[in-house]
Structure formats: structure tokens, C-alpha cells
Design a protein that fits this description.
Helix content is 39%, strand content 21%. By secondary structure, the protein is α+β, with helices and mostly antiparallel strands. The chain has one domain. The strands form 2 sheets. The protein has a two-stranded antiparallel sheet. The chain has a two-stranded antiparallel sheet with strand order 3-4. A hairpin with a 7-residue loop joins strand 3 and strand 4. Helix 1 runs antiparallel to helix 2.
């Protein structure tokens, strides 16, 4: 059930990101990793809206790589 829901989430994200530089680069069963273009800040709220649409909990972490993390 969770996987089928995440396929819908992924579809919405891929459709929304079409034409942007920001990309979804990694998905695990409960995590989505984005390569974020800093000039596309308007996408953050759109991505949040997709997660809210499916009633998913959101925890955001920002960093330059896996060694540098900063809670957003």
C-alpha cells in the first residue's frame, strides 16, 4: 500500500519538476532527496503541497552533502 501511494507521489513530483533544474535524485521507502537549484525557491512550497496532498509527514534537512546537514 505504501509503495503504491509513493508511486503517485513520485508521479506528481516528476510532472511538477518538468522543465526545472531541480531534480529528484534519490528515493527510498520514506525519503526523497532533491538536488536543489537555489534559484528555484518557489518549488519548495509546491513539493510540500504534494506531500500534504497525500497526508505525509514532512521533515526537511538541508546540506551541501551527506556530511554537512542543517535542519530546515
Amino acid at each position: 500500500m505504501e509503495t503504491s501511494q509513493n508511486v503517485l507521489v513520485l508521479w506528481d513530483i516528476f510532472c511538477m519538476l518538468r522543465g526545472y533544474k531541480t531534480k529528484l535524485v534519490l528515493y527510498t521507502y520514506d525519503s526523497f532527496l532533491f538536488d536543489w537549484d537555489e534559484n528555484e525557491t518557489e518549488l519548495l512550497e509546491k513539493i510540500r503541497d504534494i506531500f500534504k496532498k497525500y497526508k505525509l509527514n514532512i521533515k526537511e534537512i538541508e546540506g551541501y552533502d551527506y556530511n554537512f546537514r542543517e535542519t530546515a
